[in-house]
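Run folding on both entries below.
>entry_1
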Amino acid sequence: MMLLKLVNEMPMEPDVGIWTSLLSSCRIHGETDLGEKFAEKLLELGPDKAENYVLVSNLFAGSGNWDDVRTVRGEMRELGLRKDIGRSWIQIGGKTYNFAVGDRMLHESEEIQEMWRRLEEKISHIGYKNSIQVQCFMN
């Protein structure tokens, strides 16, 4: 594997950022076996970071490995790690709104959802593909 050779021949020791990038690339390109090797390295360097476990879980979810997804989520629970809630910002009519997935607290929620739907429609024309399994990670 050329990528493993490249990593092994780097003049410095790969850090969390390198392993995170490599693992994310494996998820995107469906390289689960290689991603598992990178996941091991990532978790060695950052065993107390929830986001590392989320990336590993997403790798398995992307390939339909639901048993491994459950295992990784179980490890997170055992370690007391929780994923931070994802938040989004959108500006409508000069006003900025901050919200989480499923947030219906704002009285402008329907307008925000409509704007979001239009944005997704526009960016899908330039190649954006929504990745449901990544968005659906739950603690």
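>entry_2
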Amino acid sequence: MTNMYTGRSPTRISQTTLTLALQPAHVSGNELAAAYSAYSGKPAKFVDIPVENWNTVAWNNLLKGKDTKIGFQTINDDNALLMTYGENFGNWWNLYRASGKNEGLIQRDYGFLDKIVPGRLRSVTEWMEKVQYTGEKIEVLKLQALQSRDLLREQDR
């Protein structure tokens, strides 16, 4: 859909530097839980897990856990590496946390997105409805395989 806009507005596109990132909205954990409850009828609660707790569990299978340096598989000298998995994730997490409500470093021009993708999803609830979200854990690749299989079956009919 963005290509349609580019084709209709080549002057504007060529005179600006655009970083297009599509997303329905900036949503907090509490807003996400409320949207899920409203959509599914199931209770949901956002629990703000401290990043340090997350890092302790998420990287425990690495050689030095959260303190394992990124790139350890390809560089033998640990001193040549600058950042750990824990630091990298913590920085990423805090960047997104500080950008809620479309403030901070990560911002979107939703008005512009509405112009170039008029039918875009504008809320988490709209997304849940479109993908028939159930809240059940499913592997992404498995989901893609199931969707591809269903598309092929429809084409065979």
